[in-house]
Structures are given as C-alpha cells and as structure tokens.
Automatic annotation (TrEMBL), chain A:
Keywords recorded for this protein, A-Z: Sigma factor, Transcription, Transcription regulation
Pfam families, A to Z: Sigma70_r2, Sigma70_r4_2
Record protein name field: RNA polymerase sigma factor, sigma-70 family
InterPro entries, A to Z: Cro/C1-type_HTH (IPR001387), RNA_pol_sigma-70-like (IPR039425), RNA_pol_sigma-70_dom (IPR014284), RNA_pol_sigma70_r2 (IPR007627), RNA_pol_sigma70_r4_t2 (IPR013249), RNA_pol_sigma_r2 (IPR013325), RNA_pol_sigma_r3/r4-like (IPR013324), WH-like_DNA-bd_sf (IPR036388)
One of the protein's GO biological processes: DNA-templated transcription initiation
Highest taxon, organism lineage: Bacteria
Region (Disordered): 169-201
Keyword Transcription tagged: yes
Any one GO MF annotation of this record: DNA binding
Comp. bias intervals (Basic and acidic residues): 179-201
Residue ranges constituting the HTH cro/C1-type domain according to the UniProt record: 132-154
Family in the record: Belongs to the sigma-70 factor family. ECF subfamily.
Length: 201, 321
C-alpha cells in the first residue's frame, strides 16, 4: 500500500475531505450486503492516496464516488459467494451528478468556525497544545518548550486533536460541491487548427 | 476466517497518532519502516492514515484565518509556514508544465494512436477529452465551424465540451456521429460495422452517403452496418458502465460466448485463445476480466466450465476433456 505524501494530503484536504459527508450519506442510503460504510471510506482514501497522479482529476467529488463504488464492487467480487441481486445493485449504483458550485469561500468560513468549535471542545491541555501547533503554527518542539512539557506529550495531544477532527469531519453535514467536467490530462495532444481561425484571434 | 477484524475507529485512532508523529518532524528510518509495515497490513489503515494526514495539512492551511483563537499569535512562524506552502505549490506547478510539454511532443499534427493493449486519455484543445481504447487511431482537426475527429480504427470515448457554435463530429468510415456537449463512444469494428454508445446527452448518427440522422439519447446504443435501417436500442446505465470497462483495463464478458470473448481478448493482446470445438465456443460467460491477461482468463474459464486449457507457444487452447 502506498503511503500518502504531504502533497497528496494537501490535495485530499481540498478535494476529498469536503465530499466525505456526501459520500457517506450516499453510501448509507444503499444496501451494502455485509459492508461497512467506514471500511469503504477508509479504502477509498487509501486508493486516492496511492494514485500515481491526481492532476488529471477535474471532478474530485465524482471521482471519489466512483472509487468508493469500485471498492464495493471489488469486495463483493472478492467474496466467493455473492447474492446476484447485491452485485447487480452495486453495479447499478450511479454517483449523484455534481451540483453547481456555491460560494466556496462562505463554506470555508463555516467550516473554520466548525473546526474552531471542535478544537474548543478538547480537554484543556490538549486544546492548548493543539492550538499552539495547528492554529499558531509553532513546531511541536516550540509548543513543548512553551508549555513546559515533553515533546512526546505534545505529540500525544496533537494526535488526540487529529483523531477528534477525523471523527467529526466527514460525518458532519458540511457537504461542499464543485462542478466541472470530469477530464483527464495525461497526454495532451495538439489539434490541427484552421489557420483562418488563428487569424481571428 | 476467525481473525477478529480491527474496528475502523481503532484504525482511525492509530492513524491519528501516526499523523501526529509525522507532524512532529521527519521520521527515522526505523519509524518509517514501522509506519509502512503498519499500513501494509490493511488498505483501511493506509486510507485512514491518508485522511489523518489530510486533516493535519488542512489545519496548517487554515492557519491565521481563525481569529477566534486569541492567545499569543506568532506572525513570524505563521508567515514562514505560508512561504513554505507557497514554495511547494510553485514547484508542483512547474513540474506539471514540464510534464505537459513532454507529452505534447508525442502528438503529431492532431493524430493520436494507441498500440495493442494500451489505453490513453487526452484532452483536446476545446476542453473536450478523448479516451482511446486498444489499437486505436484518431485524427482531430478543429476549425471555427466544426470540431472534426476521424476515428481511423479502434474505439474511443468522447467527453465533449459544450460549444453550440461548433458541433463535434466523429467520422468512422461512412458513419457520422454529431454531438454538441455529451459523452459517447464510437467503435469501428473490423468488419466495417460501427457501434455507438451514448453515456450522457444526445448525439445524432447518420451515414455520410444518406444524410438522414437518427437521434440517440443517453443510455442508448446503435450498431450501424453498411446497409439497413438505423435502429437505436436502450441499454441502460449499468450496461453503459460495463461497456466502458476497458477504461479500467477490463473486458466485460457479460452475455458473451467463449468465442466472442476470445475475439475480445485478441483486440488487446497477441496471445491467442484458440477454440476449435464450436460447442465450446458457444458456452456463455459472465464477469469482468483484466484485458491484459488472456491466459489467466482461459484458465479461469476452463476451471469454471470444466474445460482443459492447454498452453501453446502463442497462447492457450481451450477444449473438452
């Protein structure tokens, strides 16, 4: 399994995290014989993390849904005995079409205030360490010095904070949508242009 | 299976601890190896780790936007962090430009070809995209009035960008397919027939010689021979998806006979599946198989249909007994 790189994590934060609530909502409306939504979501992230390149993904939301569908189909096919109906139903799953993009900025703001509320709910020491590290951008070592605790303790606090946000994000109702055509750009090819057209430009 | 399955909540918690460790600073070789070994045990772990890392990165990105957190801000640290992020972005952008130039050099005056067993997806200059299946050649020529693509051989999926002023027309032999903004495949069969499947939108299909177009809506298909009426059939979304399994390097065998399946595999590979017995060739198959593995398919078919698969120098023979 290929581990996520920092660059991929940033991409996932922008392009996968915002769609996880919608994906979960979609998955939980379907009959998924013997499959857990949590497992499907985790495997979906694993595939997105292991993709060789992501620059070609123009509609991350649709892409993420398609990946989740492929996870379902794969696990159904892997199990030796599958009810025909379950397989047929899974194959017939059609990811909802992307909705027109609302004001992303407003959604970003909303999400920040949500994150703020989540952080505010952490235990005191944990909140302090997490805030210094993640909101104010000190290194874990600097946080440790400032709080007079060990770096290991700071690492535990940060881990706790990430864990709380993992649980909260993706399950909340902050679905954000993006619209665009699903297009790849692995091998751009040049198209013959009529010289007349070029003159018009 | 009697092993107890690790809960996804436990996996998330472990992943969060790893992300916090990475957040602290570079891992030692030992830690890196431990992390990799941990993630390799279950794809769900690798996925949870990716999400934890994403959340960690997400918060870094959000720095400074959250005024709700008052205590002692560190503008210096914050600015430095933002500079680091910007620098990373710049390098990435530069890398993708280099990539685009490198690939662009492969095309020759609008022509694009895949060899046997290859699949390639490429954007066109109008914002459309084309995906070429195995052994396919197209030529694209756009002007102010029309976006013309010749399908010289093989099969391709067209995701067409909307441009009402310039119809998008695919020419396959005598057959014409016109779209404004939609997604459809055209396949030029070896015997001269042309198959069209519409995934989204509407296209019009006609023969160049007799200009009466037939409208084809989403989830409809048509098979055009050199003569005869043009009659679309409804195929449904699931069948469209299956017909596009080649984009994932797979062949959809649903409803095909073994003989037809062997022909399908021959499109993708020079390894042959030889079937002499016509009663064997008529056996029906189902499922999705990797297009690049005709031998594996022959073995699986032999197992499930009670046949014998005999290896040959150029492939495999399927027979009874």
């Amino acid at each position: 399994m290929t581990l996520a790189t920092q660059e991929r994590a940033i991409w996932l934060a922008r392009n996968a995290l915002p769609h996880e609530p919608a994906l979960r909502a979609w998955l939980s409306r379907r009959p998924l014989a013997g499959l857990e939504v949590d497992d499907i979501v985790q495997e979906t992230y694993a595939i997105l993390a292991a993709l060789e390149a992501v620059d070609h993904i123009q509609t991350p939301r649709t892409y993420m849904f398609e990946v989740a569908k492929s996870v379902i189909l794969r696990s159904l096919r892997r199990s030796r005995i599958v009810a025909f109906e379950a397989l047929a139903e899974a194959e017939a799953l059609v990811p909802p079409s992307a909705e027109p993009s609302p004001e992303t900025v407003a959604a970003d703001r909303q999400e920040l205030s949500r994150i703020a509320a989540l952080i505010a709910g952490l235990p005191t020491k944990c909140r302090e360490a997490f805030t210094l590290r993640k909101v104010h951008g000190l290194s874990q070592r600097e946080v440790a010095q400032r709080m007079g605790v060990s770096e290991n303790t700071v690492e535990k606090h940060v881990g706790k904070g990430i864990g709380v946000l993992m649980k909260a994000m993706g399950r909340g109702g902050n679905g954000r949508f993006q619209a665009s055509k699903d297009r790849s750009s692995e091998d751009p090819i040049e198209v013959d242009h009529d010289p007349r057209e070029q003159r018009r430009h | 299976m009697t092993t107890i399955r690790e809960s996804s909540a436990d996996i998330d918690a472990a992943a969060a601890r790893w992300a916090a460790r990475v957040d602290r600073g570079p891992l030692s070789d030992k830690e890196q190896a431990d992390l990799e070994a941990w993630a390799a045990r279950d794809p769900r772990r690798a996925g949870a780790y990716a999400k934890a890392l994403a959340i960690s990165a997400h918060l870094d990105r959000a720095q400074g936007l959250s005024a709700a957190f008052s205590p002692s801000t560190h503008p210096v640290a914050r600015a430095a962090d933002r500079r680091r992020l910007l620098a990373t972005g710049g390098v990435l952008a530069a890398a993708s430009v280099v990539g685009a130039v490198g690939y662009g050099a492969m095309s020759l005056r609008g022509r694009m070809t895949t060899s046997k067993g290859d699949i390639r997806r490429a954007p066109l200059s109008d914002g459309s995209a084309v995906t070429l299946n195995t052994a396919t050649t197209i030529r694209a020529a756009f002007d102010g009035k029309m976006r013309r693509v010749d399908l010289l051989r093989g099969e391709a999926l067209f995701d067409v960008a909307k441009d009402p002023a310039r119809p998008f027309v695919v020419l396959a032999g005598d057959v014409r397919v016109r779209a404004v903004g939609t997604s459809f495949t055209v396949r030029a069969h070896a015997d001269g027939e042309v198959g069209v499947i519409v995934r989204e939108g509407v296209v019009e299909v006609w023969r160049g010689s007799q200009g009466k177009p037939v409208r084809l809506a989403a989830e409809h298909a048509i098979q055009v021979a050199s003569l005869g009426a043009l009659t679309p059939t409804v195929v449904g979304a699931a069948a469209v998806d299956r017909a596009l399994a080649w984009r994932q390097g797979q062949i959809d065998l649903d409803g095909l006979t073994l003989g037809q399946a062997a022909e399908e595999f021959a499109r993708y590979s020079d390894r042959r599946i030889v079937i002499d017995d016509p009663t064997v060739a008529r056996l029906k198959m189902t499922g999705l198989f990797s297009a690049s593995d005709p031998d594996g398919f022959a073995k699986a078919a032999a197992m499930s249909l009670g046949l014998t698969a005999t290896p040959r120098a150029d492939g495999v023979r399927l027979s009874r007994g």
